[in-house]
Amino acid sequence: MNKSSVRNLEVAVIGDQELVSVLRLAGVRKTHIIPGERNAAEEVRSTLREYVSDQEVGVVVLLEEFADIAGDVVAQIRQSKSVLPVVVEVPSKQGTKRTDVVSYYKRFCREFLGFDIEI
After folding, report:
1. Residue-wise pLDDT tens digits, 66-110
2. What Rg value do the Cα atoms of the chain yield, rounded?
3. Are 39 and 66 in contact (CB under 8 A)?
4. CA nearest neighbour of 8 among 76, 71, 54, 56
5. How many whole angstroms from its chain centre is CA 11?
6. Whole-angstrom Cα distance, residue 12 to residue 117?
7. Do residues 1 and 48 lie in contact, with contact meaning Cβ atoms separated by under 8 Å?
8. Half-sphere exposure of 6 (CA within 13 A, CB side)
């Protein structure tokens, strides 16, 4: 693999104030806060489309509740033939909707990384 084919990709986050603040502290620069329920669905969809079309973004971190309200766009991204970006759903401060979180993330890693990991 030649050096010109390797590139550094960024992580982008779409979340509430708490999630975005924590990930900013961790060094994430591409962030978008969804402030409330009003017009949240369209704002999540448009921001998600923006990040997916950004060639510098490799991973989009998205709150589970936002993935639910923009499920059509998330499904389109996951069904596309493109490998990047990977959309990762994370739970909110209220908890997760998943009954078995370990199985969900193992399946997720198997699907997107191509191998099993031990959690």
Report:
1. 988 898 998 888 888 677 888 888 887 776 776 776 776 677 666
2. 15
3. no
4. 56
5. 8
6. 24
7. no
8. 3
Residue 43, domain CATH: 3.40.50.10580
Which tokens hold the place of 67?
A: 């993935």
The answer to whether residue 118 sits within a structural domain is no
Q: Is the peptide bond before 91 cis (omega within 30 degrees of 0)?
A: no
> Do 51 and 11 contact (CB within 8 A), yes or no?
no
| Cβ–Cβ under 8 Å, residues 92 and 16 | yes
Output b/e per residue, 24-57; b: 16+ Cβ within 10 A.
Answer: eeeebebbbbbeeeeeebebbbebbeebbeeeeb
115: confidence class by pLDDT, cuts 50, 70, 90: low
Q: What are phi and psi of 70, to 5 degrees?
A: -115, 35
Q: How many folded domains does the chain comprise? A: 1
Answer yes or no: is 105 within a domain. no
Instruction: Say if 73 falls within a structural domain.
Output: yes
| 54 occurs within a structural domain | yes
Domain that holds residue 57: 8-92
